[in-house]
Amino acid sequence: MRSTQGVDVEPELVVSAHAERRAQQRGVSMDALLLAARYGDRSRGKAGVVIRSGTQRAVQRMVRQGVPASDADRARGVVLVVAEDSQPPTVITVRPKWDWRVS
Q1: β-pair partners for 51
Q2: Do the domain assignments include residue 101?
Q3: Is the pLDDT of residue 71 over 60?
Q4: 90-95/50-53 β-pairing
Q5: Residue 100 forms part of a structural domain
Q6: Residue at 73 is within a domain
Q7: Where on the phi/psi map is residue 46: left (φ > 0), alpha (ψ -120 to 50), or beta?
Q8: DSSP strand E in 1-103: where?
Q9: What is the C-alpha to C-alpha distance for residues 4 and 34, in angstroms, rounded to an integer?
Q10: Cβ–Cβ under 8 Å, residues 33 and 80
């Protein structure tokens, strides 16, 4: 992942400056963002974007695939808006973290 400032963390994903700001404001670590991007449940949004969500099912999938449970739990509730049609895919924004266990 790399930010628009050129920080290279994962080569197949770009995180926009806006998404970095929102993640910081909303208490979402870059590790949690990466896990949500990689394992999050996928749904179609408006204007061709993809929504990646750190749902309970996604967290269970992470753990089954070898992600430590404590790391996977940090991705719970993280929601990303991703432009997958751009090359490489770009995280546009990070939605407010929502605690799935509360409702």
Answers
A1: 43, 81
A2: no
A3: yes
A4: unpaired
A5: no
A6: yes
A7: beta
A8: 2-3, 14-15, 41-44, 50-53, 79-83, 90-95
A9: 15
A10: yes
pLDDT tens-digit profile of 4-62? 443 444 568 899 999 999 999 999 999 999 999 999 999 998 888 999 999 999 999 99
User: How far apart (Å, rounded) are the C-alpha atoms in residues 19 and 44?
Assistant: 19
Beta-strand pair 50-53/79-83: antiparallel
Whether residue 40 is contained in a domain is answered as yes
Tell me, what amino acid is at 83? A
* Domain that includes residue 25, residue range: 2-95
What amino acid occupies position 55? T
CA-based nearest residue to 32, from 2, 62, 8: 62
pTM of the full predicted structure? Answer: 0.80
Residues 6 or more apart in contact with residue 44 via CB below 8 angstroms = 50, 51
CB 97 within 8 A of CB 78: yes
Tell me how many domains the chain contains.
1
The DSSP 8-state label assigned to residue 28 in this structure reads: -
